[in-house]
Amino acid sequence: MTNHFELCTGADVFLSALRDDLPGCQRSLYAQFMTYEGDASGQAFSALLAGKAAAGLDVRLMVDGYTDVVLSDVYPIKLHRQRAVQQERARTRAMFDDLRARGVGVKRTAPPGFMGRYMLYRNHKKMVVLDERIAFVGGINISDHNYAWHDFMVRIEGPLVCDLARDFCSTWDGATIAFDTPRPGSDFVLNQCAGRYSIFDEVLAMIGHAAHSLVIQSPYLLGDRIETAIRAAAERGVQVTIIIPFRSNKLAYRVWSRKLRRRLDHANVALYGYQGMAAHANGMTHSKLIVVDDRRASFGSFNMIELEGLTQKELNVFTSSPAFITRLNAFIADDLAHAVPLPVPRTTWGRFSYSLLYRFFTWWTGRLLRNSDWTARYC
């Protein structure tokens, strides 16, 4: 049996496809997101979950602890926004309590810890699984804020869905099964966590094997190894196309990516900033994909920033489906029509702070991985 992939671009298309599938969902509905907020989007999605729970299905929701600290992209240092954040946090907690009261299992993962010291160790996955028969995987989180970004989910039918359900259920039970064996020439799922870099290693291998073309779209593409691999591909003649946000939502990335733009200044590299539709100038793309030689592709939760690859739990799907890769290429072409070439900056100030963080978290992650209680909770 082969896998069938359907690209759902934007939250509206994703939700429409999910609603179309829900009447046929008869046994279980599993949903996992990094952020899930008690705004209009969260309340609407919760109504879908509660409706299936009322029908007697096994309905579970797994949400990372990130929103215990950051909601709607508002960090604690923004003191003037904290009252609104506290109000939304209260609505979010009340929403989860209501879901539990209505028969939905709700589990929070990866608590940020005292003073947020584990904030970088996130469970970054986003997926919905229906009856171990249909799944949605991609980058969309549940909040008004995230729905406004350019992103997608992929609807999947086929054998891969069983692996996605196993990933969800094993994480729910407290010991995530490791999917870390690539199957070249077929479709497969990889997951990773701190100390196990399955997805990142496979992405690097894909770049290293590129012979003709390489396309990457990422909200936060960054890191010495991946930048070196992309540059090496360009130097051996691969035509490289990269799409990142024209103006990232994160100030740190806007600073750090200056050096990326300098490093990838090459005749075979076309680097674009996604702006979005004219009515939404400076649009934020949160899409994550890689396509190599029009033959292999990957999508999922991994942002392709090495610092997060060092610390976060991620899940990606890898496929060689010609039909789906053709659809991805059409998606990329449309995004390029709403993007502009990014100039090479004159200076690359600020990247040292990323390098220091990466070294620190390399050291600290090594120490944490020696703590069995910590690894049981975060890996």
Description of the molecule:
The chain is an alpha+beta fold. It has two domains: 4-169, Endonuclease Chain A (Endonuclease, Chain A, 2-Layer Sandwich), CATH 3.30.870.10; 178-364, Endonuclease Chain A (Endonuclease, Chain A, 2-Layer Sandwich). The chain contains twelve helices and 15 strands. The strands form two sheets. It has an eight-stranded mixed sheet, with helices on both faces. A seven-stranded mixed sheet has the order 1-7-6-5-2-3-4, sandwiched between helices. A hairpin with a 3-residue loop joins strand 12 and strand 13. Helix 6 packs parallel to helix 7 (224-235) and helix 8 (251-263) crosses helix 11 (351-368). The two termini are 32 Å apart. The mean pLDDT is 94.
Keywords:
Endonuclease, Chain A; single chain; 2 domains; 12 helices; globular; 15 strands
CATH fold field value of the largest domain: Endonuclease, Chain A
Shape: globular
CATH-defined superfamily of the largest domain: Endonuclease Chain A
Whole-angstrom Rg: 20 Å
Largest sheet descriptor: 8 strands, mixed
The level-1 CATH class of the largest domain: Alpha Beta
Q: Give the assembly state of these chains.
A: single chain
Distance between the termini: 32 Å
* Helical content (DSSP H or I, runs of 4+): 25-40%
- Return the string of H and E elements: EHEHEHEEEHEHEHEHEHEEEHEHEHH
Q: Taking all residues together, what is the mean pLDDT?
A: 94
Ranges with pLDDT <50 over ≥5 residues? Answer: none
| Structure class | alpha+beta
Beta-strand portion reads 15-25%
Would you identify the CATH architecture of the largest domain? 2-Layer Sandwich
Could you give the count of β-strands? 15
Number of helices: 12
Side by side, the strands of the main sheet go 8-14-13-12-9-10-11-15
Counting structural domains, the number is 2
